[in-house]
Every structure is written in C-alpha cells, then in structure tokens.
Design brief:
CATH superfamily of the largest domain: Putative sugar-binding, N-terminal domain
Structural class: alpha/beta
Distance between the termini: 26 Å
Strand content: 15-25%
Helix content: 25-40%
Low-confidence stretches: none
Length: 409
C-alpha cells in the first residue's frame, strides 16, 4: 500500500475512493479498521469510520487505530478525509484528531484543504465558499448536528487545537509546488491552503509529495496519485439488477429537492421521529410497505430544518437522530435478507447506519454517479450501494443511481 486514507464518515470514504480509483490506483474501501492484512496488490486503502460527530476521545482512538493499520500495510502518506464543508463545531474533533495523528507520524506540517471545486467548494483567503457564498450563508448554518456559523477555517480549526494555524494564500498556490513548500512555516503548524480550481489541488498534491499527513475533502487526493506514478483509468463495474429501495435521512437542501422530485412519480413513505420513538413505525412495518410497492420506493426522514429542530427539542437531538439511524440500519438488514439488491442512501449518518446494518466489511469502487459519489458493491455479496453525502448530486440523482447500477461497464 502506498496511500492510506482515514475517512470520518462512509460517504466521504466513497467520495475519496472514487477520486483515487479514477486516477488509476487500486483502491478498496474498508468499513472500520480491518482485522486482517490488505491484499498485497492494493495501492490505496480507505478506512471508513463513523467519527465525524463522535466524542473527541472516541474519534482519536478510532483514527489512531486506522492509522496504525494503514502504516502496517506500508502506507507512506496518511490523509484524514473530512467533509468538503468542514463539518465541525468549536467542540469538534478534526483538530484533536490531527494532533494525535501528527504525534503518531512525527509530522510537523499538516496541509489542510477541504476544497472540492467540482461540487462548488473552494477555499480563498482561508475562507470556505459554497459556490458563490460563504459557508455560513450556504444553508450549512442549519445543519442539525454540525451547524457551520463561521466560514474562516483558521478560526474554526484554531478553536479546536493548541497548534498554530497558518495559511498559504491563492497567490502563492498559483506560483507552483515549490512556492507552497517555501511558504510552509518552519515550526509545527496546521496550514490552511487556498484552492479555487482543480489545478490548484493538483499543485497542492505535488507540493505534498513526502508530506506525512494531510487533511481535506476528496479534492485533496486529486494531485496525490501522480506522486505514486498512477495512470488514470475508469473503475470497472459488474451490472447489479434486482429489487431496489431508496433511504434518505439527510436534511440538506439538495437532498430535500431530490426527495421532492422523486416522490412526484414514485411511492414514498415519510418517517417521523415521533413515530419511531413511540414504536408506531418499525423496520418490519416499513419493510412490509417497501415490498408491497411497485418500482423502487423511497423511505425518507428528510424534513425541513424547523421540523428537525422541533423533534430535537421534544426528544433531544441525539435521541431522535439515533432512533432514526437505528431504524434505517435494521431496515437495510431486513430488506437485504429479503432479496433487495440495490440500495441508494442519502446522508452521511444514514449511510453509516445502512452499511452497519448490512454488516459490510469492504466495498469495491465502481464508476461515478455524480461528482463525489460512486456506485459501490459489497465485497462479499452482489448488493450495490450508492452512498451520497447530503449536498451532493442533481435533482435526478436517485433515478440516475438506480439505472447506472444495472449497467455493466
């Protein structure tokens, strides 16, 4: 193994795995820290954790375990993959996890860049933009678990770490890899690096050759495969046909638009937090409903922010979210046992719940459905998945994913 990725959620793991696969690296996404060695032919390993909103101590423990396994497989460079919107409050764990990884790897400079221009995420003057607006004006300020109130990544990260947080501006990035390297502080620091276009990320990748630790969204990986002599090639895919279902737990604007578009022409069932908490709705009752529908039905809990806040106020934020995640996890297990072969999932937390319910250990990476989202297939069963971060994909994402799953490459 040449490159090791520690992803703080399951959709993000698939996202960066697609970037590496399209660049020609032989890559597998592992669910949690594996207990066995990786195949000798593997060039990049992506360990998917569920640590984005985990307590700091838990996130550090799991991330260090993933790092140790990746290094034992021969990884020469470690990337902490986080969301391209840097989902993390002042009490978040990105800074503490980076500190712990840096100590384990004896890393002095940590390059940090969550930019993903293809999906409208860019970093300029240390601030994170979503398309043409600052992050905190983009809708992310309403995220139910990680509301983003500040677009200045230096302040966001600085609130989480005792390390200095430095900045390499776009003007230096445009001068090339050597200019970036020269601009890095001599003392230990986490360094926010601007990136507006894909070419900037490739420049950052070239500057990162030999750097022990990086942090960013999937875009951070655009320039890394070339350092390991990889040649671009499309991922292979074996057609997967059969019964399908869509599960959506994301409350992002993009996902709510996708849900609204899909339910106009297809069967859809909304899951309310109070019905799950009361036991009125269970995985068994929902599975019965799914199996009785024609076509591919949609099960969703993607409510407007006001509805989500009301449920959080009534039941507690953690309790409501955990109950719905547990429902989706059990639903995935039940439907797979009953023969469902295609599952489209919207939302990072929901994706983690579904993967857990399927008891998946590793995923093969297929072609892209949309920027940042590949089709994946369980390594041990012919079940195809699409694990979508909330804000990704066009309005017809669900239909596109289901169709592509059935198409051999």
């Amino acid at each position: 193994m040449k490159l090791g990725i520690i992803a703080d959620d399951f959709t993000g793991a698939s996202d960066i795995a697609l970037t590496l696969a399209e660049a020609g690296m032989r890559v597998t996404q592992f669910i949690g820290v594996p207990s066995a060695p990786a195949p000798a032919t593997l060039e990049a390993g992506v360990v998917a954790l569920k640590s984005r909103t985990a307590p700091v101590d838990t996130a550090i423990r799991d991330s260090l375990a993933a790092c140790d396994w990746l290094i034992a497989q021969g990884a020469e460079q470690i990337v902490l993959k986080v969301c391209s919107t840097f989902d993390s409050t002042a009490e978040g764990n990105i800074g503490p996890v980076l500190e712990a990884l840096a100590e384990r790897l004896d890393a002095r400079q940590i390059l940090v860049c969550p930019a993903f221009p293809e999906n409208g995420r860019s970093v300029y003057q240390g601030h994170l933009f979503v398309n043409d607006v600052l992050l905190n004006e983009s809708g992310m300020q309403d995220h139910p678990l990680t509301p983003m109130r500040d677009a200045d990544l230096r302040r966001v990260l600085g609130a989480q770490t005792s390390w200095p947080v430095a900045h390499v501006p776009a003007q230096i990035v445009s001068q090339g890899p050597d200019a970036i390297s020269a601009a890095l502080p001599k003392r230990p620091a986490m360094v926010i690096v601007d990136a507006i276009e894909d070419k900037d990320l490739k420049t950052i990748g070239a500057a990162a050759k030999g750097v022990k630790l990086l942090c960013g969204g999937s875009g951070i990986a655009l320039g890394l495969p070339a350092n390991f002599n990889a040649s671009p090639a499309p991922p292979a895919w074996q057609a997967t046909r059969g019964k399908g279902v869509i599960m959506s737990g994301s409350c992002s604007r993009a996902t709510r638009a996708q849900v609204a578009a899909y339910r106009k022409e297809n069967a859809a069932l909304e899951i309310a937090a109070e019905d799950v908490m009361s036991g009125k709705v269970t995985a068994a009752t929902v599975a019965d409903w799914v199996n009785a529908q024609p076509g591919v039905p949609l099960v969703y809990s993607s409510a407007d922010p006001d509805v989500v806040r009301a449920a959080q106020d009534r039941f507690g934020a953690g309790a409501a979210a955990s109950a719905i995640e547990a429902l989706f996890s059990e639903l995935a297990h039940v439907l797979a046992e009953q023969g469902t072969a295609r599952i489209v999932v919207a939302g990072g937390e929901t994706s983690g719940a579904v993967v857990k319910g399927l008891n998946a250990k590793a995923l093969h990476i297929g072609p892209r459905i949309a920027a940042g989202v590949p089709i994946v297939q369980l390594a041990d069963r012919p079940i195809a998945l699409a694990l979508k971060s909330g804000n990704f994909g066009a309005e017809d994402f669900f239909e596109t994913a289901l169709t592509l799953m059935e198409t051999a490459q």
